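Lab notebook, bench 4. The sequencing result for the construct came back, and we need a structural model before the next group meeting so we can plan mutations. Quick request posted to the team channel:

Model the 3D structure of this chain.
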Amino acid sequence: MASAARRATPLSPSPSPEPQDGAGASAAAAAAAGASSDAQRPPSPPPDANERARRQLETATRAAVDALYQLAVCTADVHEGQEGLVGAKINSVVAALGNVSATGSSSELTAMVPDDVMGMIDQGRNPDAHTRTFISRLVADNQQMASMTMALDAYHDRLSESLSRAFPELAQPIAQMRDGEEGQTAAGT
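Done. Here's the predicted structure in token form:
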């Protein structure tokens, strides 16, 4: 399948596919095939309360963005006698933002956003930087713990060898103790 050229549409920042000659029939056939395969799939489970609340918040946010867009269009072309229309659009934006606030404070939304991420968004910075920093810190901590564990294991082995040489009568119990610890480690306890 040839990739379609993409161009940005005037109302959307995302590119949309450019129609190609003869592609309409094959796209319709693909859509029909996709619809028949959808009929064979089992229905998806109903979304949980958190997912429903997230979708409601997303819908309210999209409505607020749409209201802001309508306000921008309205204010760009105000004619004499239509000043009241701008006020009505401002009121609809305020109402949409109030709806976002009310929907966002729902008790069903349990996914918490870290304060650091919210602060980055408020400052106009990319919140992905917080995630990268957090993951890097976790990787470094994990490497440090792995190194400490390996060092302690090596120390324990050397100590066991030294004790076995210094006290030959304890060699067997030390070996049994070490074998028992390895079994517990392998079992995840």
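Confidence is low (pLDDT under 50) at residues 1-36.
Will bring this to the meeting.
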